[in-house]
Amino acid sequence: MPKYYEDKEEDGRACSGIREDFKACLLQHDCVVKEGKMPSQCLKEGHCKALQTSFFECKRSMLDNRSRFRGRKGY
What we know:
Elements: H1 16-28, H2 30-33, H3 39-45, H4 49-63, H5 67-70
Helix pairs in contact: 1-4
């Protein structure tokens, strides 16, 4: 589900690809668009769970000392 654009500005932060896809998933989900709920409420209901888990794993890998050799998880 990663989105690549030629005219997209570069974000140098860690896990920026997953962060952008996670944000887009939440904001475009029917829970937010049609029902008018907050994205935090939709997260508690379990929407976009796979991207939430991937984003968590990427952020956690930043703290892991083994990631110096393996590299960060994510894209």
